[in-house]
Amino acid sequence: MRNLKFYLFRSLKNNLLDMLKASVDTCNIDDYQSRFSIKWNVLNDLIAEEDKKEIEGKLNKLLNSLTSRQREIVYLRFIHELDYEEIASLMNMTIQSSRKAVSRAIGKMRKLKVAFLFAIMG
Prior knowledge:
Elements lengths: L1 H22 L5 H4 L9 H23 L3 H12 L4 H8 L3 H27 L1
Helix pairs in contact: 3-6, 4-6, 5-6
């Protein structure tokens, strides 16, 4: 995803420069680099923080729908990116049980996902 964004920005910039070169006899990229600016204010920060808190709250509700063991397994698998063997070792279970536990947790979250996505968007 990050490479795609970079590619699209690079492509847009190059296309704009090509259009500019076509309309002007000579063009130096250094002349145009200082023209790019973004205006950011405190209101933008407040809105971003508010959105972040709202999403965190909704995500916590989704995670709280899981059992504590399921939350721990999801945390180990997706936050710390442990493999099933490592999870099984930490949780004193078989590898197959760790796979099944992750699968059940994901299944439970999928059932609530539609409601969660609508809550975030709405």
